[in-house]
């Protein structure tokens, strides 16, 4: 059902002007070919379409944040909101500005400050945080080769001064409970994970399937997954979340590696990868392709 429309969108996307810049503030990300482009769609009925570079792995970066949040939510439930909010920040993903006057409670779990608090929660609750987290992703997807990209993690650790500042600032408010270096190490590793568009769809399947993974494991219940998707809708694209909602109309999450994952609950998951980013750190061509998808099919949550 989606084959024809996706082919059309792929062709149109390839003809678009090359706008946007590859992320270079993490030096290792600058080594990627900026003109890569892939799109992958997986329906809950089992239809799968992969086009272009849909099977090539890239750095998922912030796309890891709904995954760490979901796992932390399994440990803390609603108590999690004592440490992080659920409001869009209207500020860039790496901003420090609200944190001081909001007393160390990040606006939401997807800005870097919020994701660091979630990383702290996982460091508290997991015995071997990095091993347990990657195993969690392997178990929910049956993709046993998923892994951290150690050169990306190392590269970010050597230049991640903003995140280092944020983590220390959070610690000064008591909203990081573990050793700051340990939390940052976990965070840089979660961001370094590589996946292809096709793999992202399999890992993110449970967000579209009422909390149940592709291999039948219930991660969160229906009401909890509603909350995760609501947060992706309102905060998944930082200060561009309104724009993404307006143009695409799906909950989703972006990363500075150029990936985007979005889903229509109970229907499909779609991922795109194009490393050229706009000034808000979101993939220019990915947003274009997803806007085309919901416009041409009329399938969005609105
Ligand atoms: O913390 C950072 O800056 C990166 N590891 C992740 C940022 C990111 O992907 C923002 N997304 N658009």
UniProtKB/TrEMBL annotation:
The keyword Acetylation applies. Gene3D superfamilies: DD-peptidase/beta-lactamase superfamily. Its EC number is 3.5.1.2. Substrate binds at residues 62, 112, 156, 163, 187, 238, 256. PANTHER family: GLUTAMINASE. Homotetramer. InterPro entries: Beta-lactam/transpept-like, Glutaminase. NCBIfam families: Gln_ase, PRK00971.1-1, PRK00971.1-2. It catalyses: L-glutamine + H2O = L-glutamate + NH4(+). SUPFAM superfamilies: beta-lactamase/transpeptidase-like. It comes from the Bacteria. Belongs to the glutaminase family. This is Glutaminase. Pfam families: Glutaminase (PF04960). Keywords: Acetylation, Hydrolase.
